Amino acid sequence: MSINNKLIPVPFAVNAGDTYKYSIPQTNTTTYPNKATYETGFPAVTMADIAAGGVPPFGQDFNGVLNDITTAIRYIQSGNYQTYDSAFATSIGGYDKGSVILGSDGKLYQSTVDANKTNPVGGSGWAGFIDGKYLPLTGGTLTGTLTGTDITAKTSLTVGSAKATYSAAGLNFDKQMTINSTPVLKRGDYGVGGKAVHLTNSSTNINDVTETQFSWYNSSTAGEKPASAGWVISSNILDSQAMQISVGWGGAGLFFRDSTGGVFNAWKTVITTENIGSYQSGLGVNQTWQDVKSSRSAGAIYTNTTGRPITVNITTGQDGGGWAYLYVDDVIVAGYFYTDRYGNGSVLSAVVPNNSTYKLSAGAVSFWAELR
Which domain of life, per UniProt (predicted)? Predict the structure, then answer.
């Protein structure tokens, strides 16, 4: 059997706040014609040309829809069963025959009828999915007296070279397969209350950890690490394809990477609500207007070394006639002709890219401010 479906450990937009992720209603009860709902999806107005009255859909609705879908997928991929829900059963017209759900008593039930709306715990139309204290044999004979689903008589069962003896339900077999010694798996062993975690150490290379496991790394761990220390979830679905997700300790960040041909690609940083400010570099984002007149003068050349675009605003005027030019990388981007007859001034403005030079050619500076 080939297993090639993509596992989704983190639902889409799970950390997006209410401002960036809308809850999707069954029907539209708002005044917004472009609101997505489960009954109509994205309405026709979101698909019409804007010139013809179309309205774009909400990006928050996309986040909401994809979050609902991937949350449900992650729940199923995690091996969970849906719990019986009366309101949901009514809304879908009842569970189909053959449906398997989880009852409030923690047991699995299978519907034996269509349109089943009853509670499986005590209701009609349901059968225990795995009923009883034993599974039927595919060969041989199960001996002993059965009352309902309980084994009340002492029974011996030989399977190959292993012999098991039990006399009542609820007793654990030990490693020698008898009931009078320690259990087969004692608490603390892998799989029974223990820490089923594979830990990396100083002799482990994180690049070699490709099997499915949950581990940690620190400064002693070899290989390419996204942080100095953290947790890492590794998954190997195909022999040549693997993925890793890492959570850095101390809030170092969330990272992921995959492999191509058995070789891991570079780590990528996941942008979250905590670190999004570090990646927003648009004009005006995390910038403020600053009065820099005292450190600026006409004729001098300045260089934008902020690492992002800035805006320059200069109010200039001068007695006598002439032009004042604002240059960016030796290109005139704004100019003003002034005369002493009127004695007026003007505002010259330009956006200066990172590492670009800018200069005011002439004129008396009244105000010089920069958005940086």
Answer: Bacteria
Provide CB contacts within 8 A for 212, sequence distance 6+: 234, 235, 236
- Domains in the chain: boundaries: 1-80, 86-128, 206-277, 289-371
Worst-scoring range by mean pLDDT, 8-17, 88-97, 119-128, 179-188?
179-188
What phi, psi does 366 have (nearest 5°)? -90, -45
Sign of CA dihedral 340, 359, 290, 346: positive
Q: Which residues of 69-92 are buried (b: 16+ CB within 10 A; e: fewer)?
A: ebeebbeeeeeeeeebeeeebeee
Task: Give the β-pairing of 268-269 and 253-260.
Answer: antiparallel
Overall pTM > 0.70 = no
In Å, what is the CA distance from 185 to each residue of 155, 164, 176, 196, 280? 22, 15, 11, 13, 53
Q: How far apart are CA 223 and CA 82, in angstroms?
A: 41
Q: Which residues pair with 326 in a beta bridge?
A: 334, 360
Bigger pLDDT: 104 or 144? 104
Compute the mean pLDDT over every residue in the chain, rounded to the nearest whole number: 80
Going edge to edge, which strands form the sheet with 310-317? 289-291, 364-371, 310-317, 346-352
Nearest to 224 by CA among 259, 249, 178: 259
CATH 2.115.10 correct for 289-371: no
Q: Are strands 301-303 and 357-360 parallel, antiparallel or unpaired?
A: antiparallel
Give the per-residue pLDDT at 242: 83
Residue whose pair of structure tokens reads 């002493």 in the numeric block: 340
How far, in Å, CA of 138 to CA of 4, rounded? 31
Listed range (3-12, 41-50, 238-247, 256-265) with the worst mean pLDDT: 238-247
Q: Which residue do the tokens 């704004």 mark? A: 334
Ranked by mean pLDDT, which of 31-35, 189-193, 284-288 comes out on top? Answer: 31-35
